[in-house]
Design brief:
This is AP-1 complex subunit gamma. By secondary structure, this protein is α+β, with helices and mostly antiparallel strands. It contains 34 helices and eight strands. Among the domains are: 133 residues, no CATH class; 116 residues, Gamma-adaptin ear (GAE) domain (Immunoglobulin-like), CATH 2.60.40.1230. Strand 2 and strand 3 form a beta hairpin. 37% of the residues are buried.
């Protein structure tokens, strides 16, 4: 005897009338009990009604797994009302994770063999929704037979089922090749759209299918021409665009067929030009067709004039009022900037205007594209625009903008003075957001430009007097004042206005830096070293400098205290050697020679082993120059081990430096990642003075046709190790072998245990978000033994 239960409309009304979640659960639990009782009683005429109520309960998020076997019974029933609910229940309650889904294979096969179209349609829809690989193999022959049935209704659903089968079992591609060629002659919208989708899937899964369907490129071009010129079906037009969904699918298929194939690309060039020039851009449907046309032109081997047309279409998109269309245009232009640089350059003013967009995603994409457009001919104007954007840009974009300006200036700077001015401007505007190597790069640049020493020290002194909050600027200014303080007082500089500075003013400014609560420990180290060097640059009494240095002999910061103690010892015990020890740093060459004449910006890949081994052993007369402690201002490197000293090495002991410069044996590199053109290689350096420290440089390169954006590398090591990740050189790896991204990882291994590391890479590539996690174990023995 079946308990009295509610009908489906009554159940829906009861659930919607519940005022609290507890009341809703009470209604559902009571009705589920009635449904279970009805299933146990085996009331066949009412089984489909009970399952319909259970499916509604399932849609609300409540458990309904006990209805799975009832779905199988209803599917096996000869009544259409039972099959309809049974197949719907199978699509909702069954999937590949339950073994019960295999039990309906025979029922689907029987229903596909019947001539009743509604039943065949239900079976095909269920197969397309939850068919597993085993089901697809068993039912492939039935679906192939239905592809050529007279009924358009069955053929459309069979095509969709075939698409699902190809995705599940790619080796079934050969079965569906002959029917697809015949289905291309269809005039029915649904069948033709499904056939294009099926051919696209086949070409992506099988190289043999790709070769086969390149023969139908003229037929696809004719279908597209019919859509564009005469209109395919008025009932499928959207905003005056004839069947935009079918146009988009045909364009995607043409893009796959024409990629890296000259003959197919030549056959579709004229048609693509017609689509690009005849499509209305006043409606969003037309913009969608144009965007797919641009992607197709870019991917195939199209003519140069056609590629320029594609870039111009994207340029028109930049003027559209829709933010989404502008974002798509910026993203596409960023992909094209490597292959069609001159064509994209024509739209540079419009791209720069997009920097002022209030939308953060648009301004970020415009910034990436603007940085990619910088070259030796427009470096001055583009840098001026980017510096203006740096002043007013959101905080989360300042780091990317500042790093981009510094990298562009390093590659394309026309003169050394312009390069120095640009870096100083960036440090003044956004010093807290620049990369860690900005200070070292500027000091190296100034040190290598002897003719600009007086100009640089005057400019930096003026900037420091105006603002001591930007720490990188303060560090560079302190270094420069310490090195060239004599030029600040007496040097003549024609490029700047005369600057009257007294020794006391300089000392007071550096003392303010030392006492400021804004100064970092590294900044105080720069300022203290600068004061010490000024004791040999200035002609006045050094008592004030001695007093300042002696105060920091008891500083809580160990690094600063060590400097002060060493400097005090230099005053007391080695005063006769102070002038020689604190003399100016020698000129430093910064990469290639850089004159004041315009030059072409070139980059050379960084090789850490080459840089470490390229420095010759310094002669004994130049060892005194090593007192410059700026390289260790960050305090990262642990102190060197104690040395057995000779009297001649006493000064070196004062500086905590080894008496000889050991040579480094090269450590072989290691490739740890390679996917879709993105590669990551690791190179290793072990400083001889700190054997437990390993410097790992991770270099990411991209040989694919699409940029890798938002690239982030994370690392983890066992607890017995200490790991520190430095800031990477960027977050975008340009396509086709562009400049790589480098990041330094400092690993401290005091126990000399075998090194293991887990890496996680997250990035966007080909429009998809990718996250890869893997473990690296096979490090060379030289990295840890």
């Amino acid at each position: 005897m079946v308990l009295q239960s509610l009908k489906l409309p009554e159940l829906i009304q009861e659930i919607r009338g519940a005022k609290t979640q507890a009341q809703e659960r009470e209604v559902i639990q009571k009705e589920c009990a009635h449904i279970r009782a009805a299933f146990r009683e085996g009331d066949a005429p009412q089984r489909h009604r009970q399952l319909a109520k259970l499916l509604y309960v399932h849609m609300l998020g409540y458990p309904a797994h006990f209805g799975q076997m009832e779905c199988l019974k209803l599917i096996a029933s000869p009544r259409f009302t039972d099959k309809r609910v049974g197949y719907l229940g199978a699509m909702l309650l069954l999937d590949e994770r339950q073994d019960a889904h295999l039990l309906i294979t025979n029922s689907i096969k029987n229903d596909l063999s019947q001539g009743i179209q509604p039943v065949q349609g239900l079976a095909l829809c269920t197969l397309s929704t939850m068919g597993s690989a085993e089901m697809c193999r068993d039912l492939a022959s039935e679906v192939e037979r239905l592809l050529l049935r007279p009924s358009p209704y069955i053929r459309k659903k069979a095509v969709l089922a075939a698409v699902h089968m190809i995705r599940k079992v790619p080796e079934l591609s050969d079965i569906f090749l002959p029917p697809c060629t015949q289905l291309l002659h269809e005039r029915h919208h649904g069948i033709l759209l499904g056939t294009i989708t099926l051919i696209t899937e086949l070409c992506e899964q099988s190289p043999a299918a790709l070769t086969h369907f390149r023969q139908v490129v003229p037929q696809l071009v004719q279908i597209l021409r019919t859509l564009v010129m005469s209109g395919y079906s008025a009932e499928h037009s959207v905003s005056g665009i004839s069947d935009p969904f079918l146009q988009v699918q045909v364009l995607r298929l043409l893009r796959i067929l024409g990629r890296n194939h000259e003959e197919s690309s030549e056959a579709m060039n004229d048609m693509l030009a017609q689509v690009a020039t005849n499509t209305d851009t006043s409606r969003n449907a037309g913009n969608a067709v144009l965007y797919e046309t641009v992607l197709t032109i870019v991917d195939i081997r199209s003519a140069s004039g056609l590629r320029v047309l594609a870039v111009n279409i994207l340029g028109r998109f930049l003027l559209n009022s829709d933010k989404n269309i502008r974002y798509v245009a910026l993203t596409s232009l960023l992909r094209l900037v490597q292959s069609d640089h001159s064509a994209v350059q024509r739209h540079r003013p419009t791209v720069v205007e997009c920097l002022r967009e209030p939308d953060a995603s648009l301004s970020r994409r415009a910034l990436e594209l603007s940085l990619a457009l910088v070259n030796s001919s427009n470096i001055r104007s583009m840098t001026q625009e980017l510096q203006g954007f740096l002043v007013s840009c959101p905080v989360d974009l300042r780091a990317d903008c500042a790093s981009g300006i510094l990298l562009a200036a390093e590659r394309f700077a026309p003169t050394k003075r312009w390069h120095i001015d640009t870096i100083m401007q960036v440090l003044t505007t956004a010093g807290a957001h620049v990369r860690d190597d900005a200070v070292a790069n500027l000091t190296q640049l100034i040190g290598g430009a002897e003719e600009l020493h007086a100009y640089s020290v005057r400019q930096l002194y003026s900037a420091l007097a105006a603002d001591i909050s930007q720490q990188p600027l303060v560090q560079v200014a302190a270094w420069c004042i310490g090195e060239y303080g004599d030029l600040l007082l007496s040097g003549s500089c024609e490029e700047t206005e005369p600057l009257q500075v007294q020794e006391e003013e300089v000392l007071t400014l550096l003392e303010n830096v030392l006492q400021s609560h804004l100064s970092l420990p590294a900044t105080r180290g720069f300022a203290l070293t600068a004061l010490m060097k000024l004791s040999t640059r200035f002609q006045g009494d050094n008592n004030r400098i001695r007093q300042i240095v002696s105060i920091y002999g008891s500083c809580l910061d160990i690094e600063l205290q060590q400097r002060a103690v060493e400097y005090n010892a230099l005053f007391r015990k080695y005063d006769h050697m102070r002038s020689a020890v604190l003399e100016k740093m020698p000129l430093v060459e910064h990469g290639e020679s850089q004159d004041d004449e315009p030059r072409e910006g070139k980059e050379e890949p960084w090789n850490p082993n080459k840089e470490v081994q390229s420095h010759p052993e310094p002669p004994a007369s130049n060892l005194l120059d090593l007192l410059d402690l700026l390289d260790s201002a960050n305090g990262d490197a642990p102190p060197s081990p104690a040395l057995d000293l000779t009297p001649e090495d006493s000064l070196l002991h004062l500086l905590d430096l080894p008496s000889t410069v050991p040579t480094l044996a090269p450590i072989p590199g290691l490739k740890v990642f390679d996917r879709e053109g993105l590669q990551m290689n690791l190179s290793f350096v072990r400083p001889p003075e700190t054997p437990a420290l390993l410097l790992i440089t991770a270099t990411a390169t991209n040989t694919s046709k699409s940029d890798v954006t938002h690239f982030v590398c994370q690392a983890a090591v066992p607890k017995s190790f200490q790991l520190q990740l430095q800031i990477p050189s960027g977050n975008t790896v340009p396509a086709q072998g562009g400049p790589p991204i480098t990041q330094v990882l400092r690993v401290f291994n005091p126990s000399k245990a075998p090194l293991r590391m887990r890496l996680r890479l997250t990035y966007n590539h080909f429009g998809q978000s990718v996250q890869e996690t893997f473990e690296v174990k096979d490090f060379p023995l030289e990295t840890w033994q």
